[in-house]
Amino acid sequence: MLDSIKKFFSSSMSPVEESSDEENKKDIRLAACALLLELAYADEEFTEDEREHLESAIRRQYGLEPAQATQLIELAEEARAGAVDLWQFTSLIAENYSVGQKMVLAEIMWGLVYSDGELADKEQHLMRKISHLLKLEPGYLTLARKRAEDIRDSALIDGE
Fold it and tell me: Domains of the chain, with CATH numbers?
């Protein structure tokens, strides 16, 4: 598993010469994607709507091509399956993301849990847990949720 993760990050996703900052950014991408997957599976069902939202969000957020996004998701699935808890993912993000970056991630997370049309209790609980581990204050989590709801509502209106 570790070899495939290392291979992914040394592939075409990055320039030939990597700095430790670039490596760290890639590790954070993997950690964020693993957290998103954890949320997607929180209600025991990873729907097609959730998958589409996840792929779209990571492509947009990290500037990835479709094949790169698919590969990142596969590696994040492996990392998630091998993880004992969420700390290995949240600690990396908490240490390296600004409050603004954490807010964007929280908005993506809320968008993901709403993408299947339902907010399960397990998803809401996990959002609070992840927020705490990311050291994101409850007020910020509420604001991120409101923004995600507004985006969802405007998309519903546009789709009618």
Answer: 2-159 (1.10.3680.10)
pLDDT digits 0-9 by tens, 68-86: 999 999 999 999 999 999 9
Burial of 93 (0-12, 13-18, 19+ CB in 10 A): buried
Consecutive H or E run containing 47 = none
Report which of 42, 35, 49, 144 is spatially closest to residue 79, judged by C-alpha positions: 35
pTM (2 decimals)? 0.80
DSSP state of 135: T
Can you tell me the distance from the alpha carbon of 39 to that of 4, in angstroms, rounded to the nearest whole number?
A: 23
Amino acid code (one letter) for 109 = M
Contact predicate 108/36, CB 8 Å: yes
For residue 54, the SS3 value is helix
Q: Could you report the per-residue pLDDT of 40-79, keeping only the tens digit for each?
A: 999 888 889 899 999 999 999 999 999 999 999 999 999 9
Helix/strand/coil for 119:
coil
Q: Which of 22, 4, 21 is nearest to 13 (CA)?
A: 22
- Residue at 8: amino acid letter: F
